[in-house]
Specification:
Blueprint lengths: L2 H14 L1 H36 L5 E6 L10 H11 L3 E15 L2 E9 L9 E4 L9 E3 L1 H7 L6 E4 L2 E9 L13 E4 L11 E6 L2 H15 L6 E5 L1 H43 L1 H9 L4 H37 L4 H4 L5 H27 L3 H6 L1
Parallel strand pairs: 3-8, 5-7
Antiparallel strand pairs: 1-9, 1-10, 2-3, 2-6, 2-9, 4-7, 5-8, 6-7
Helix pairs in contact: 1-8, 2-6, 2-8, 2-10, 3-5, 6-10, 8-10
């Protein structure tokens, strides 16, 4: 018996009891739908989170090691940090503090930053962040809204007046600095001119990790001098969490496919018992064991393929619904990394169907013609 007649015979057998066939395929549909949808949903959430926090992976924060009794940087520390970050990003020493800011008859609390090159860390929504801040003040959007400030407005901090040269854009994601509540001043405006932290705005995540590792190796070679914090570790933690969540969801979905496999096993076993006479006739007229085996395996495979295709179509509808009714971007939904989950779901569904049909097919193929004809 060639393969094509085996397929035709399998289709005819499946059409004999359509209700039972549909119910068996429905288990595969649900299993494939669950694996594909949960897998893609989990990956879309992970990609969306990574995109939202993607920028923070480029920053490294270096602070004096307070736990080791170090309260400030030395000139040697700063020089070593600059050498470690050379070619990998821009080093921005920051003097930090807090103060009450007054303007337009109101006041609000603000985070003060003292740096000469604020354009490496901040973006302007109004005006231009100067590459070298010699005078004036750059204010965050939260401070500007609270005091009704615009470029050219005046603010007062501890009796000193400053002209606003730029208003910062609202923060997007997590950063080593707090731009919304920030007021950036020239370092000379601070009583303590020693930086309390150093932020490295690296060219990328790999450059940030390399700079952080070299700073730890060089500056802390003899004693603990600085604490180095890579913001990329937050992204790694988020990715690890979503990876575990995705594995858990896929495991649950896989269980539904195992249940579907049991249903197919039962359907194939019942079908074999009901067709003992037919199988006996086929064997009596010379049909080989392999042909019987092939026909029944093809039946199981067709159940898997049909159920898998329907399950994939429904999962695509579900993914489209996620895009339509939520704020995820089309680029994330269409990301190529989602495709393996669809392939995995379809392949697993077909494999479960084939494995479930193997024993009933083997049992039918090994029926003795005389015993089969006796029923």
């Amino acid at each position: 018996m060639s393969r094509l007649p085996a397929v035709r015979l399998a289709v005819r057998n499946l059409n004999r009891n359509r209700v039972r066939t549909v119910l068996a395929a429905l288990g595969i549909v649900i299993g494939v739908l669950a694996i594909a949808t949960l897998g893609v949903f989990g990956n879309v959430l992970q990609l969306s989170a990574t995109d939202s926090f993607g920028g923070i992976g480029n920053q490294v924060t270096v602070s004096p090691a307070a736990d080791a009794g170090v309260e400030s940087f030395t000139e040697r520390d700063l020089a070593t940090i600059r050498r470690a970050a050379e070619g990998r990003g821009e080093v921005v020493p920051l003097i930090t503090g807090g103060a009450l800011v007054r303007g337009n008859g109101a006041s609000t609390a603000a985070q003060l930053y003292g740096t000469e090159n604020p354009d490496a860390l901040f973006d302007a929504a109004e005006g231009t962040v100067p590459p070298r801040l010699r005078s004036g003040a750059v204010v965050g959007s939260g401070v500007a809204d609270a005091l009704g400030l615009r470029v050219g407005s005046a603010i007062e901090i501890e009796g000193n007046r400053y002209r606003v040269v730029a208003v910062l854009a609202e923060a997007e994601g997590i950063s080593a600095v707090s731009p919304d509540r920030a007021v950036v001043l020239p370092p000379a405006e601070f009583a303590d001119t020693e930086p309390s932290q150093v932020v490295i705005q690296a060219n990328g995540r790999e450059a940030a990790s390399a700079a952080a590792a070299e700073i730890r190796e060089r500056v802390n070679a003899r004693e603990q001098r600085v604490s180095v914090f890579e913001l990329s570790s937050i992204v790694d933690t988020i990715s690890e969490f979503f990876g575990l969540l995705n594995t858990f969801l896929l495991s649950l979905a896989g269980l539904s496919l195992v249940v579907a496999g049991v249903a197919i096993f039962n359907v194939m076993l019942m079908s074999t018992n009901e067709r003992r006479g037919e199988i006996g006739v086929l064997r009596a007229v010379g049909v080989q064991k392999g042909d019987v085996l092939r026909t029944l395996v093809v039946e199981a495979g067709l159940l898997g393929v049909a159920g898998g295709l329907v399950g994939l179509a429904l999962s695509l509808v579900a993914v489209w619904g996620l895009y339509y009714f939520s704020e995820v971007t089309l680029a994330v939904v269409l990301d190529p990394s989602n495709v393996p989950y669809l392939v995995l779901a379809f392949g697993f569904g077909v494999a479960v169907a084939l494995v479930s049909g193997l024993y009933p097919a083997w049992k039918a193929a090994n029926l003795h013609p005389v015993e089969a004809l006796r029923g």
